[in-house]
Write a structure and sequence with these properties.
This protein is mainly α and 154 residues long. The protein is built from 3 helices and no strands.
Length: 154
């Protein structure tokens, strides 16, 4: 019986040693899992921070794209305005050239009229000096005669 009890004790001791080893392994595993869980929590916090940072960057990128789009629209409007200004300038230049041409034509016409008047005045003055009253009467028409006689009555 003692032998049986010794064998049972040894078996029990072996079983207890096995249980003790397994318990130690389980404790180590639990401690490792606890460490892993803490690391997982840290990683989750870092992921949340990174996501928040990415969201912020995404919002800023969208704002920049909207601003760029607004600038692109403004640039297009500026190009249109520049084109309109160039067209207006070309139109004004054409109007200026037409006005200058008309003014130059007017000046030429005015000079021609003045020259003609001057020539007529000169020829009239020259004819006044060189024509006698008798000569004028010789070329008088019946109409001129009537007018002259009527004027003399007054």
């Amino acid at each position: 019986k003692n032998r049986e009890l010794d064998e049972l004790l040894q078996l029990e001791k072996a079983r207890n040693d096995t249980y003790k080893e397994k318990a130690e392994q389980l404790l180590e595993a639990q401690h490792g899992l606890t460490k892993q869980t803490a690391k997982n929590r840290e990683l989750d916090e870092l992921l949340q921070l990174e996501k928040a940072r990415n969201d912020t960057y995404k919002e800023k990128a969208e704002q920049l794209l909207e601003a760029q789009h607004g600038l692109t629209k403004q640039t297009a409007k500026n190009r249109e305005l520049d084109e309109l200004l160039q067209l207006e300038k070309a139109r004004n230049d054409k109007l200026d050239s037409v006005i200058n041409a008309i003014y130059n034509a007017y000046l030429k016409f005015d000079r021609a009229i003045k020259n003609q008047q001057s020539e007529e005045n000169n020829s009239f003055e020259a004819s006044l000096d060189s024509v006698s009253y008798t000569h004028l009467r010789a070329h008088e028409t019946p109409e001129h005669l009537v007018c002259r006689l009527l004027l003399e009555k007054k």
